[in-house]
Each structure stands twice: as C-alpha cells, then as structure tokens.
Design goal:
Low-confidence stretches: 1-9
Oligomer: single chain
Number of strands: 0
Shape: elongated
Helix content: 40-55%
CATH class: Mainly Alpha
Order of helices and strands: HHHHHH
Largest sheet: none
Number of helices: 6
Strand content: under 5%
Mean pLDDT: 80
CATH superfamily: lambda repressor-like DNA-binding domains
Distance between the termini: 29 Å
Radius of gyration: 19 Å
C-alpha cells in the first residue's frame, strides 16, 4: 500500500484565482465548498478531494497537474520508492494485439 506523507504543499490555486479576478468566496460558491476550505487549499494546509480539485481546475481554466504540481512530484517520488521495493518480475512484451503475446 502506498504511504504518502501528510505534509501538504502550497499550490497555485490562489495565483490562478487572482488571474481570473475571482474572490475566494466566489470560487467557493462555484466549486460548491466553503470559503474556509478554499483558504486551506490555497495555503497548502489541506489537499482538496479529487472532485473538488477537478472543479477548481475547470473554474480556473488550468489543468489539475499545474495547480497541484508539488503534490504530484511528491506522490511520484513515493510511488517510485515503493516500486523499487517490489521483486523483479518478468512480463510478456506488450503488443497492440492481445493474441500476439511473446513469452
């Protein structure tokens, strides 16, 4: 099981929100959450759930990967550590047609 740190990183929500000339209360109403939640997301105290992150992304016109770049980097690093601990396995070569597996 993947263990991620509880540490949250500041993100780009505030920057992109300001570029759209939105107040945090306006973004909160668009996303369907409270202004306090938006403030916590902007300061990196809490990471929004996927549904909220997608709504923020749509509202601000910015890809989720850009808004939460630091979180993605941290998760990717943790996944790579966990993958390195797995025993080496042999998988068949990938072919576009499933009937052509090479063993």
């Amino acid at each position: 099981m993947l263990r991620t740190t509880n540490r949250c990183f500041p993100n780009s929500i505030k920057c992109y929100r300001r570029r759209m000339f939105l107040r945090s209360t306006e973004l909160a109403s668009i996303v369907g959450r409270g202004q306090i939640s938006v403030s916590k997301w902007e300061h990196g105290n809490v990471t929004p759930l996927l549904e909220s992150a997608l709504a923020i992304s749509a509202a601000l016109g910015c890809p989720v990967e850009i808004l939460f770049l630091e979180q993605f980097k941290e998760i990717r690093k943790e996944v790579r550590k966990q993958m390195a601990k797995l025993p080496a396995r042999r998988y068949p070569d990938f072919h576009p047609c499933p009937t052509r597996w090479a063993y």
